[in-house]
Amino acid sequence: MPGLSILQGKANSDNRGEFSRLFCAKEMLTILGTNSFAQVNRSLSHESGVIRGLHFQRPPHAEIKLVRCIRGRVWDVAVDLREDSPTFLKWYAEELSGHNHKVMVIPEGFAHGFQVLDKESELIYFHSKPYQPFAEGGLRYDDPALTINWPLPARNVSNRDLSFPFISEGFTGL
Ligand SMILES: Cc1cn([C@H]2C[C@H](O)[C@@H](COP(=O)(O)OP(=O)(O)O[C@H]3O[C@@H](C)C(=O)[C@@H](O)[C@H]3O)O2)c(=O)[nH]c1=O
């Protein structure tokens, strides 16, 4: 999908453990054309099957998100909500884990969510814009217009995530 990418991080390991780079301003400028990030957030989920999402911020607060799993495993999903995109309403998923060091780079105009595959999974997100509760929006994880093939039965979806509307006919994206 245009603008969506997976970066392959790497860990230097020896008999003490591992060292890995989470962010490099110079690399980000080359890859994304920006290295300006407003927030770094952490998320911990206790149970496998938990789904969080699908979340986005409306313009002008739309944000780029870099998502990395630092412990456990998640199935990370990005949904293209850019009306003029050839992949409008299509989704892409990738397994991110504390071992594979992959980073999902999600451009503006996408919704994001994930399902936890291993208990006690932890994510780190880099956000290009600050959190703006009034600009938040979401889609249902089980929206029939998206038919996302979540790997596990859904567990412990938040009330907020269950309150998002299903996509209606004439939905024009973000
Ligand atoms: C997203 C966010 C939430 N909060 C607050 C709001 C709320 O009281 C509490 C928990 O937020 P939530 O229930 O929205 O947490 P969660 O459902 O984990 O939300 C996250 O889901 C994934 C899929 C994403 O893509 C993230 O950007 C984020 O939206 O934290 C912040 O203070 N800053 C933030 O950046």
From TrEMBL:
It catalyses: dTDP-4-dehydro-6-deoxy-alpha-D-glucose = dTDP-4-dehydro-beta-L-rhamnose. It is an enzyme of class 5 (isomerase). Keywords: Isomerase. Pathway: Carbohydrate biosynthesis; dTDP-L-rhamnose biosynthesis. Its EC number is 5.1.3.13. GO terms for molecular function: dTDP-4-dehydrorhamnose 3,5-epimerase activity. GO terms for cellular component: cytosol. The keyword Oxidoreductase does not apply. GO terms for biological process: dTDP-rhamnose biosynthetic process; polysaccharide biosynthetic process. The active site is at H55, Y125. The record marks Y131 as: Participates in a stacking interaction with the thymidine ring of dTDP-4-oxo-6-deoxyglucose. Pfam families: dTDP_sugar_isom. It comes from the Bacteria. Signal peptide: none annotated. Catalyzes the epimerization of the C3' and C5'positions of dTDP-6-deoxy-D-xylo-4-hexulose, forming dTDP-6-deoxy-L-lyxo-4-hexulose. Homodimer. PANTHER family: DTDP-6-DEOXY-D-GLUCOSE-3,5 EPIMERASE, THYMIDINE DIPHOSPHO-4-KETO-RHAMNOSE 3,5-EPIMERASE. Belongs to the dTDP-4-dehydrorhamnose 3,5-epimerase family. This is dTDP-4-dehydrorhamnose 3,5-epimerase. It comes from Parahaliea maris. The gene is rfbC.
